[in-house]
Design brief:
The complex is a heterotrimer of chains A (280), B (343) and C (251). With 343 residues, chain B is mainly α. Chain B has helices at 10-34, 39-53, 72-79, 81-99, 107-131, 137-166, 173-205, 208-213, 222-246, 251-259, 270-282, 310-342, and strands at residues 58-59, 66-67. Chain C is of the alpha/beta class. In chain C, α4 (98-108) runs parallel beside α6. The chains are: A mainly alpha (280), B mainly alpha (343), C alpha/beta (251). The interface between A and B is large, with 138 and 129 residues.
Chain lengths: 280, 343, 251
């Protein structure tokens, strides 16, 4: 993929990737009531949330707003850093922005008039996209922050994902940290000895990535050996976790109920309507 | 080109998740039959490698920008299609969860666009066919670049189709294609070069690695797979559109509210009409519009505009603001309580 | 107790690329012995260790672990009684959490889940890191990783512990702790290492390998004081047995 970075920024890019991964990982080991919830329940509720949010038509704005309760609840009670998550959302927003910004150009029929000012469908749908974007991205980040990747792997496995898949997901996550640090060291070594862009061409890249790849494959062989030493015979057995408790079920029922309410009733319009009537 | 949740509809997201989950299940089953239990750690570690390798950049001559690898094709070359597919799916999951790079419901789309095409289409039908048994430097470079470009072109086109089918973006088909395809020509070229550079390095230093991997490429029952995926897609698509139509205040209702007529004429772009015909014939998503366009018939009938009257929209804005404030206040209270607890 | 005896006779191994890694290796290690295998890089230590748990099957010569000769058929039994601790703990700790990793072996031995859990707790308590039980593996320090790696092996209750460079890349305090821990084990221990000071603390017997052959086998303090022998095998006397650079005393 093409990146708008200068070569000098690359060092910081690796380090920031590593830092982000590690920080999100660290957040997921906190001990709060939300962290303690069954990971399957959290995964399912998150998926229901996402499904409901994207099920609105493209001109919907007001009905999307109440959904903000869910990520805010998770972020606040799982003690996740708001500013950090917000920065992450901003960081990935260009894609949605890039696609969404075309809407005002192609869809210029006025569909609502507020205080005499007409707003085109394109702008309404653009704001709808951005709102959806913030809601979905925040909630996914909140999920990982309050659950942790490994627990999501376990949850997927218990919800019926093939074992081979969930096991190698766990391996992937386990070795991301090892390999990313290894890579960062190699790239640092390269960048320290590259001048005026020399030494950063595709040929050197092939040598660096290639030798890392070979090292990776050798490591996989050693891991396999380590597994065999401890009785591995093709099937990894996973220690079973407990069944969901009262708190898990309550969390599930309450939020699903709220999602249904938010989906069926236009809560903001109802509130706004009654407030306006009160004022009048 | 990672799809975000904000740009897809439940029907598209659900269908693609079903398709990708089916492929994951199928690949897992295939791998289990292989009995080569060495591949289990190898796949996971290779996924981690791709993740790490994406952080190595190289400068692209004469442009001043830098590129890095996407990984699907390289994984397929090293691991064979089934293991590569699982591996790339895992990489995409980590990216979605930790970096919000692609949505969680859009994960099906992303796995399909960036995993299925390189692993099950490009690798066996283009890369393997063209490379054959003999290796040479120029051949590896040319074939890798070609394969990567084709893979990314199909992937990008798939992004366009999925976005259009979702109907959230108002981008017309032609513009979107013009936006996506040329960018991915460049990206594909870079990806191909990077892949070739790695393949060449390994070919020179440890050629035996290729033999380990590519023993399992034959025997993918394409016909069976395509048919079962179609069935799967139809079933889930049907389910979601049933879900959509079962709720009177679902998609159509709000469309009616916005546009004044539940069924909008499709605009003159032929792709929609073809799509719509196709859709009616196959009952893919019954009365589910591919692209609820506003600039079609509605423009003629002025009385249908604006369907949302000013009163309700003001109420919506006021209420929305109140709701938002309430949510923030609750969040602050929860957070405050937390701090007190921990002190 | 015959089943803890390790007996090698005329063991040879040549890699597919023609590299002769082992030449005529013969030794006998009895129950409860603690043996160091030392030698320069490429002397064949790792290849020998890989034979000890049946990862490599002897090409010529015989190797018996307890009652079983090492062969493809017996490898499964042998791996139960020989616990292998790797040089790089990151290779050994492949599961997401400490608990999962220590439970991996017992689960493969098909113990019921309650027993697995008890074994995990007991083993972690033995090595003194019960507090790490729920920690993710990648969040451990180097010393913790090494300790947990040993626990993953101990949870399978092996009779023989085989260790490859157990003290490499540990800081001095973690190294000291590990040595103290290993001292408490009554297993038969075979340790391949460059850390000759540790050998001095832990092993009463030392085997020196050079270019795939055993060139010395005997009492550790004799061997570690033999300057000529050590020099010949690309080694040096343990620092403790060398002179003091400050007061200038020569040995």
């Amino acid at each position: 993929m093409l990146l708008p970075f200068n070569c000098e920024d690359i060092i910081s890019k690796i380090e920031s990737t590593l830092f982000n991964l590690g920080y999100m990982d660290l957040l997921s080991y906190q001990d709060t009531p939300v962290h303690r919830l069954d990971s399957r329940i959290k995964l399912i509720v998150t998926l229901c949330f996402l499904l409901t949010v994207i099920s609105f038509d493209r001109y919907e704005i007001s009905m999307l707003i109440p959904f903000i309760f869910y990520p805010i609840y998770i972020i606040a009670s799982a003690n996740l850093p708001v500013a950090y998550l917000f920065k992450k959302v901003l960081y990935v927003s260009p894609f949605a922005l890039m696609i969404g910004i075309f809407n005002p150009f192609f869809d210029d029929k006025i569909i609502i008039t507020v205080f005499g000012i007409g707003i085109t469908g394109g702008w309404v749908s653009f704001f709808s996209i951005m709102l959806r974007f913030v809601l979905t991205v925040t909630t996914v980040l909140a999920l990982i922050g309050c659950t942790g990747f490994n627990n999501i792997c376990y949850a997927m496995n218990r919800l019926g994902a093939p074992k081979v898949f969930s096991i190698q997901l766990m391996f992937l996550y386990r070795y991301i940290f090892v390999l990313a640090e290894e890579t960062a060291r190699v790239v640092r070594a390269r960048n320290l000895r590259s001048f005026n862009g020399k030494g950063k061409g595709v040929k050197i890249y092939g040598a660096i990535a290639g030798s890392l790849l070979i090292r990776t494959i050798n490591r996989a062989q050693r891991i396999h050996y380590a597994m065999i030493c401890r009785g591995f015979n093709g099937d990894i057995k996973i220690f079973k976790s407990n069944n969901p408790g009262v708190a898990d079920i309550a969390f599930f029922i309450i939020w699903i109920f709220l999602f249904i309410v938010f989906r069926i009733f236009n809560v903001p319009e109802l509130i706004g309507g009654s407030v306006l009537r009160l004022i009048q | 080109m990672h799809m975000a949740d904000a740009l897809i509809s439940p029907a598209v997201g659900g269908t693609m998740i079903a398709a990708s989950a089916g492929l994951i299940a199928y690949s897992s089953k295939k791998l289990k039959e292989e009995i080569d239990d060495k591949k289990i750690p190898l796949m996971g570690v290779m996924g981690a490698f791709i993740f790490a390798a994406q952080m190595i950049n190289f400068t692209i001559p004469a442009t001043g920008s830098s590129g890095h690898i996407g990984g699907g094709l390289l994984l397929a070359i090293i691991l064979g299609p089934y293991a590569a597919f699982l591996s790339i799916a895992s990489v995409l999951m980590v990216q979605a969860l930790f970096f919000a790079d692609g949505g969680l419901l859009a994960i099906g789309c992303n796995i399909f666009n960036l995993g299925f095409f390189p692993c099950f289409i490009v690798y066996p039908f283009i890369y393997k066919k063209l490379i054959g048994d003999s290796f040479s430097k120029s051949k590896i470079v040319i074939v890798s670049v070609l394969a990567a470009i084709i893979g990314l072109q199909i992937g990008a086109f798939s992004v366009v189709l999925e976005t259009l089918a979702s109907g959230i973006s108002a981008l017309p088909f032609g513009t979107f294609v013009l936006l996506m395809q040329p960018i991915h020509l460049a990206i594909g070229f870079v990806e191909g070069l990077a892949t070739a550079a790695v393949v060449l390095f390994i070919y020179r230093s440890q050629p035996e690695l290729f033999n380990v991997a590519s023993t399992t490429t034959t025997g993918f029952p394409y016909k069976k797979a395509v048919i079962s995926m179609l069935v799967l897609a139809l079933v889930t698509g049907g389910m979601f559109s049933w879900f959509a139509s079962a709720f009177p205040d679902g998609l159509e209702w709000s469309m009616e509210k916005v546009a004044g007529s539940p069924e909008l004429e499709s605009p003159e772009h032929s792709i929609y009409t073809t799509m719509k015909n196709l859709q009616e014939k196959t009952a893919f998503f019954p009365d589910y519009n591919f692209k609820p366009s506003t600039d079609a018939k509605a423009a003629e009938g002025d009385e249908s505009w604006p369907a949302v009257n000013a009163g309700t929209s003001v109420a919506g804005i006021v209420g929305g603001f109140i709701t938002l404030m309430a949510a923030v206040i609750i969040g602050v209270i929860l957070k405050k309580r937390k701090v007190v607890e921990s002190v | 107790m015959s089943h803890h005896i390790i007996q090698s006779h005329g063991l040879c191994y040549t890699y597919p690329d023609g590299n002769k890694a082992l030449r005529e290796i013969s030794f006998l290690i009895t129950h409860g012995e603690s043996v160091a295998i030392i030698g320069a890089n490429g002397a064949g230590k790792s290849t020998l260790l890989m034979h000890l748990n049946g990862h490599i099957i002897p090409q010529t010569g015989t190797l018996r672990i307890g009652d079983y000769p090492v062969s493809k058929e017996t490898a499964h039994h042998i791996r139960r009684s020989v616990g292998m601790v790797f040089q790089d703990s990151d290779d050994q700790l492949f599961m997401p959490t400490v608990f999962d990793d220590v439970a991996f072996g017992p689960l493969n031995l098909d113990f019921p889940h309650e027993e697995v859990e008890e074994r995990v707790r007991k083993t972690l308590e033995t090595v003194g890191v019960l507090h790490l039980i729920n920690r993710p593996t990648h969040r451990l320090s180097g010393g913790e990783k090494r300790t947990v790696a040993i626990a993953t092996v101990l949870s399978m209750t092996p009779d023989i512990l085989v260790m490859d460079e157990p003290t490499s890349s540990l800081d001095p305090r973690s190294r000291r702790r590990l040595i103290e821990l290993l001292k408490t084990f009554h297993h038969t221990k075979i340790i391949a290492t460059h850390d000759l000071d540790m050998v001095f603390d832990l092993c009463e017997r030392t085997i020196i390998m050079n270019e795939g052959a055993i060139i010395a086998d005997g009492n550790s303090s004799d061997i570690l004081n033999n300057k000529e022998l050590l020099k010949k095998s690309g080694l040096e006397k343990p620092l403790r047995l060398q002179g003091c650079p400050v007061c200038g005393t020569e040995e």
